From TrEMBL:
This is Peptidase M75 superfamily protein. InterPro entries: Imelysin-like, Imelysin-like_IPPA, Imelysin_sf. It comes from Rhodohalobacter barkolensis. It comes from the Bacteria. One of its GO terms (cellular component) is cell envelope. Residues 44-342 form the Imelysin-like domain.
Length: 369
């Protein structure tokens, strides 16, 4: 009789533990290759092709500016820098293949940029961007500084490229920055096109090193560390105990940090929903995978909860100052509220979604999330 009672309570306990987990089909029954094909062909490759086109235009804008530094070419260069920065938000999460090998994200968007190192590089005219020690002196944040941060107004900034004794060195540095961004992007894109796409799609298993498992981990890592923490949490002082207003993205331009954040949030939600790049059309995705599994949490479908939370975080962010540095300095509480809304999706995706998909976290979490 005691054995029967124990068996009954064990069954009840197990049933309760899986209440928020998969309640429908089995994980292995989903067409994992279909989701990989949609990611590769309709999201990743088109996004990289778009970014490569923008970085090619960035290189051309740099050439026009250094050939004839004036207000018009400076403004044209800035406009192309912003277009490139927005396009970057759609590829930053894809740190796989060649991008992982060359630490692509660290080379393109490590901020805050090291202004002292940049000025030292220009003064000595000796630098090697392939060295890890130079990561913080290159990429889009470095361009932000040399296009906006050298002086208090456009005329003083232009003087560094026209009348300054190191004007040629400044122009060379700007050119080298743009060439480096473009060449690294071409390298990553060509690898996806010629090698990695087929490898990525064909590896449709459920092992720890399979394409889907690695991509999901990279996606959540990006959302948690680069988007949630990097763009909002670190400037708001969540991890330091005090605000750090100079740690926002595009700090020197002074007006684009919120715009870039919202662009990255859109990209993250589009990836979750399998939305084709530059289109409203959708394919197989993490959302459709969860729907297939009929995954619920507290009686609500998990994919619905995640999308609602994306929208809630977006609504909070819309109320922020366009300059997130100013927002931190004037009303940091609003930054903290936005961070809290972003954090809720870390739990939904990193805990509930990974449990439903039977995927383990493959990176070390050092900030207690």
């Amino acid at each position: 009789m005691k054995k029967l009672v124990l068996l009954f309570f064990s069954t009840v306990l197990l049933w309760g533990c899986t209440d928020n987990g998969p309640s429908g089909s089995e994980v292995q029954d989903f067409d994992r290759q279909a989701i990989l094909e949609n990611w590769a062909d309709n999201i990743i490759l088109p996004a990289f092709e778009n970014f490569a086109a923008e970085t090619e235009s960035l290189k051309e804008a740099a050439n026009d500016f250094t050939t004839s530094p004036n207000e018009q070419t400076l403004n044209d260069f800035r406009e192309q820098w912003l277009a490139s920065y927005k396009a970057w938000q759609h590829v930053s999460m894809f740190e796989m293949g060649r991008a992982m090998e060359i630490r692509y994200r660290d080379n393109i968007n490590l901020y805050p940029t090291d202004t002292s190192l940049i000025l030292e590089n220009i003064e000595t005219n000796t630098y090697n961007f392939e060295l890890p020690s130079q990561n913080a002196a290159q990429g889009l944040p470095a361009l932000d500084f040399v296009l906006y941060g050298l002086g208090e107004n456009d005329q003083s900034i232009l003087s560094f490229y026209t009348t300054d004794e190191d004007a040629e060195a400044y122009k060379n540095y700007v050119t080298d920055l743009a060439i480096r961004i473009d060449s690294l992007t071409d390298e990553v894109l060509e690898y996806w096109q010629n090698v990695y796409r087929d490898e990525f799609v064909s590896d449709s298993g459920n092992g720890a090193n399979s394409s889907l498992n690695m991509m999901v981990n990279d996606y959540i890592f990006y959302y948690e560390k680069a988007l949630r923490a990097g763009k909002i949490g670190i400037p708001a002082g969540v991890f330091s105990g005090s605000p750090l207003s100079d740690r926002v993205e595009a700090y020197y331009s002074g007006e684009y940090s919120k715009e870039l954040f919202l662009e990255s949030l859109d990209a993250a939600q589009n990836f979750f929903n399998g939305t084709h790049f530059g289109s409203e059309q959708k394919g197989e995705s993490l959302s459709s995978y969860l729907e297939f599994l009929e995954t619920t949490k507290d009686g609500e479908s998990l994919e619905t909860l995640i999308n609602i939370q994306f929208e809630t975080a977006r609504q909070e962010a819309q109320s922020l100052n366009n300059n997130l540095s100013e927002q931190v300095e004037t009303d940091n509480n609003q930054m903290l509220v936005t961070y809290d809304e972003l954090q809720k999706n870390v739990v939904f995706m990193k805990v509930d979604m990974l449990q439903a998909l039977n995927i383990s976290v493959d990176y070390v979490d050092a900030d207690g999330d």
